[in-house]
Amino acid sequence: MANYGGMYDAHLDILPEDLKKNPFPKPIFRSSTIFPVFHFPGVTSRFLFMGYWIVKRQIKRLECVVTLRSLEGQVLNRASFTINKAKAYRIELAKQLERANISLEKHFMGSLEVEIFSSENLYFSFPAGIINYYGPSFSTFVHSTQRVYNDYEDMSKFQFSHRPESGFNIYADGNREPFIGLNNGIELIKDYKVQVEFINMDHETLKHEFNLGTLHPYQTHIIYPEREVDLQSFLKGKLGTAKVKHRLNWVFPRLAVGNIQKNPPAISVTHTYYDCTECTAQTDYWNQATPEWHNATLMVPLLTNHGHYTNIYFYPMYPASEFQIDIEIYNSEGAMLNAKENVLTIVSPSLIIREIAFKDICEELNIDTSENLTARIIANPKSGTKLPARVKIGLDIGKDAEGMPCNISTNLYPFNPKLETKPRTFRWLPIMMDQNNASVWITNSSAAKEYTREAQVELIFFREKDEKTLTRNIHIPPHGFRVIYPQQDVELEEFFEHGVGWLVVKSSSPHTNTYYFVEGSSGVVGGDHGF
């Protein structure tokens, strides 16, 4: 049977070709992404990235091509520029609209395609950049989602499955409604249909087929399910999820999805991951951990103070399995404050959306939540079973009764003893200095049961203005973390001059991970993991 879910790295498209068992790896000279864009009162769009190729790969010169298209796929403007500086870059939709002689007073929806070209191997087919929907009262973001394949060989490598896409939260309550963004590839598709299965918190399902008619090359279609389906009655005031079965050609299937808020105007965005419930290949599962390791873990930020909440969600999308979730709570210095075993048992297949509300966990364990904390999520298979290769979760951080939370699509990291021989790691992420209430989290944790590796971390800040950098050094203990609030840091405020910045994290621990957030005045929280 085809290996749908076990292509652990293929769907992420993140590993260099020489790490995939290909005897004739083909170099990658084009890296690209295509995504829906919106511009209307209170909401606009942009794409943010840094010249990380210069820092990480020592590629000194690249070319960027930016194409603005209408919803129908018509080219409205095309621009290009050279990337030859290790600095922050931004591509604002408003500027592209002005170049296309489109009034900023008009409502606009369409797509932006960003293509990076190089004469040296880029290794990755996606640029490590973020889609940022923002406005006066909110800012949300997600990393690159879809891309048009480079050639037939590229397409055949990743079109291994047309499984449904899933793994995200939806709302329908009169003020919020879900959206599903689809960008077509280079081929015209007639009589195009998208089947969506909605799932609510009562384990009920509702199926609907959306008939999109003819999809032209590069056409963008935004599906608003609640406008055809009575989702308010179906969801009963609670969140739900969906499985989206689509078949687009010549384009990577990961979708930009989320929810739109009407008042005040805002968008919350995340990305899909494919449904693995019918996956049966050996590579759809991870090897059983040795006694000194948990099978998979993930350290996530935990905010339950000042009206915040932190929840995680396990979606009905895993291959056949049964595994247990344990939780450990840590402070910034890596001290475990308390723990709870067997918080959940996940059984797949099922129709159950499983939720862990950390406010309830902390109250039960008598943990003081006045300070920032982190939660270590631990997954181990039940006896006689194997853990899925990718335990995908949704991480929500939000404010009580205000706006929308982020819904970060991430996964637990399976145990990998080979990482212990890696002397360092390189991470990077944006710093949203032109948005209010931005924060950056840096964690140091692994799947080892007795983790003792400290992280000596060099922080290098990059700005838009020029190639000047600012460097700091910090220490993170095992299971510890550090949080940066850039708007509360006078030195960073002066350095960035209110522009968008980027942070490179060079750590002596391969288990260093990052997250970044923005909390808008409307209460909408944007967030994502770093690269």
Write up what this structure looks like.
This protein is mostly beta strands. It has 3 domains: 1-271, no CATH class; 284-414, Hypothetical Protein Tm1070, Chain: A, CATH 2.60.290.11; 420-529, Sandwich (Hypothetical Protein Tm1070, Chain: A). 7% of the residues lie in helices and 45% in strands. It contains 6 helices and 34 strands. It has helices at residues 52-57, 93-99, 152-158, 231-235, 358-364, 490-496, and strands spanning 30-39, 44-50, 62-70, 75-83, 88-92, 108-117, 130-135, 138-143, 165-166, 176-183, 189-200, 205-215, 220-223, 240-245, 256-261, 266-271, 273-274, 296-302, 308-314, 321-330, 336-348, 354-357, 373-381, 392-399, 408-411, 413-414, 425-431, 438-444, 455-462, 469-476, 481-484, 501-507, 512-519, 525-529. The strands form 9 sheets. It has a 5-stranded antiparallel sheet with strand order 21-20-23-18-26, with helices on one face. The protein has a 4-stranded antiparallel sheet with strand order 1-6-3-4, covered by helices on one side. Strand 33 and strand 34 (525-529) form a beta hairpin. It is globular. It starts with 29 loop residues before the first strand and ends with a strand. Mean pLDDT is 92; it is low at 1-20.
